[in-house]
Amino acid sequence: MDRMGADFSASLKSLENRLGIVPVPIQEPIGSEEEFVGTIDLISMEALLYNPQTDVDSVRMRRISLERASTSFPGIVEKATQSRRKMLNALAEIDEIFMDFYIEKGEHEGI
Fold first, then answer.
1. How far apart (Å, rounded) are the C-alpha atoms in residues 24 and 12?
2. What is the pLDDT of residue 3?
3. How is residue 33 annotated by DSSP?
4. Average pLDDT of span 72-95
5. What pLDDT score was predicted for residue 34?
6. pTM flag (> 0.85)
7. What is the signed CA dihedral for 89, 93, 99, 105, rounded to 10 degrees?
8. pLDDT at position 50, please?
9. Residue 91: its H or E element
10. Ramachandran quadrant class, 21 (left: phi over 0; alpha: psi -120 to 50; beta: rest)
11. What percent of the chain stands above pLDDT 70?
């Protein structure tokens, strides 16, 4: 995602069109190209950030809550919530046991 012309949505569409699959991301990028600073972990609902200016030779990620990250990245909580919902719905479509659990518990009770 840190390369010129990087486009996460276009990459997912390409996989869908070329391979005939529906990719289900478990992470979403925060920024792109020179603005790329990390990812949103849709399972733990945390931001994984790195500093491209200081982490040039190696990548050191720091994990912070989405609420804390939202001060620097407005809209990140809403984006993560929407992406997580898509991920959980995709999982429910292919696993009946998970679907029953998901319907019974809802997306905020231990999922």
1. 9
2. 62
3. G
4. 91
5. 79
6. no
7. 10
8. 81
9. helix 76-94
10. beta
11. 83
What is the distance between the alpha carbons of residues 100 and 3, in angstroms, rounded to a whole number? 41
> What distance in Å separates the CA atoms of residue 73 and residue 1, rounded to the nearest whole number?
17
What whole-number distance in Å separates Cα of residue 83 and Cα of residue 80? Answer: 5
Nearest CA among 99, 79, 77, 96 for reference residue 88 = 99
pLDDT, average across residues 65-87: 91
Query: Strand, coil or helix: what is 64?
Result: strand
Which distant-in-sequence residues (6+ apart) come within 8 Å of 49 by Cβ?
Answer: 30, 37, 38, 61, 62, 63, 64, 69
| Cα–Cα distance for residue pair 101/84, rounded to 1 Å | 16
Please give the structure tokens belonging to residue 61.
């990620």
* Residue 89: both structure tokens together: 């719905």
pLDDT at 66 over 60: yes
The enclosing H or E element of 46 equals strand 46-49
Write down the mean pLDDT value for the chain.
Answer: 84
